[in-house]
Design goal:
This protein is of the alpha/beta class and 297 residues long. It folds into 2 domains: 89 residues, 2-Layer Sandwich (Alpha-Beta Plaits), CATH 3.30.70.260; 193 residues, Rossmann fold. The strands form 3 sheets. A 7-stranded mixed sheet has the order 7-6-5-8-9-10-11.
Length: 297
């Protein structure tokens, strides 16, 4: 019979996450697991990928429970760096599962992706803290503030783009961990993107670049497409070419109108973006060059 009185009781603040990348070699998993065992930690989720030894890379994400992790975090991290990471020349991060990334959501006039995110946050289905919503239009202020979120209108046009970006940077600097472009219809400068490397997530319809422009669904309808979809990716200086986090498609037919195509497109955009933000927030995405390793559920 198991003596439950001796079973360790863990709370949400006792859960940590390691994300690790290093050159592939034998013994990495054993070394990490042995360290955690000696520290008294209990591994509760584990996923790894290797691109193949001896020249390949090793990627690892794991969750563990450790009593008093919040208080022990600094000493625990220093011990891991010295006893494990240094020997394997690891790139690694340790995060607490209770820490939610402070997030700014950018939007223009289309509200479907934004409202999906805000609804999920309001229902505790998306572990991010929405610090504010930024828009180059004032149209969605009432909707956003009605849900209790902060809204900031920063107009952008051809003559003030640099000034608008600087105002945005001043507003965000040190205050946010993640930027989400929920159909923000502005191109960010390379300088702006560089300040938030691998911390800007975008969503767009998967017609790009074939059906570029203001009305891709009309073009798609005229071409008789059989699939429509969406892509969520990290933003880089090269437009819509950043590392892909998630994609999805739905089948369509000649029977659908342009408006019906748009509705289906909006639905898949909402789903794809919310998944990408969730996986980023849960430290499930590792960027490897222009690719991603995604340890999704």
């Amino acid at each position: 019979m198991i003596d439950n009185s001796k079973t360790e009781q863990y709370g949400p603040s006792d859960v940590g996450r390691f994300v690790i990348c290093c050159a592939d070699r034998p013994g990495i998993i054993s070394t990490v697991a042995t360290f955690l065992h000696h520290e008294g930690a209990n591994i509760i989720d584990f996923d790894q990928h290797s691109s193949g030894a001896p020249e390949g890379k090793f990627f690892l994400r794991l969750e563990f429970q450790l009593k008093g992790l919040v208080e022990r975090e600094k000493v625990f991290s220093e011990a891991f760096a010295e006893k494990v990471a240094a020997a394997h020349d690891m790139q690694w991060t340790l995060t607490l599962a209770v820490d939610k990334p402070r997030t700014a959501i950018f939007v223009s006039k289309f509200d479907h992706a934004l409202m999906e995110l805000l609804w999920r946050v309001s229902r505790d289905l998306l572990p991010i803290e929405v610090s504010l919503v930024i828009s180059n239009h004032d149209d969605l202020r009432q909707q956003v503030e009605g849900l209790g979120f902060r809204f900031k209108h920063i107009p952008v046009n051809a003559s003030n783009k640099a000034e608008a970006e600087q105002e945005t940077i001043n507003l965000l600097n040190g205050e946010v961990d993640l930027l989400v472009l929920a159909r923000y219809m502005q191109i960010l400068s390379a300088d702006f993107v560089d300040q938030f490397s691998n911390r800007i997530i975008n969503i767009h319809h998967s017609f790009l670049p074939a059906f570029a422009g203001a009305d891709p669904y009309r073009q798609a309808c005229e071409q008789g497409v059989k699939l429509i979809g969406a892509t969520s990716h990290y933003v880089t200086a090269e437009l819509d070419q950043g590392p892909i986090i998630e994609q999805d498609v739905v089948r369509v037919s000649h029977r659908l109108s342009i408006e019906e195509l748009k509705q289906l497109g909006n639905e898949v955009e909402r789903k794809v973006l919310s998944k990408a933000v969730l996986w980023h927030a849960e430290n499930r995405v590792i960027v490897d060059g222009n690719k991603t390793i995604v340890f999704n559920k």
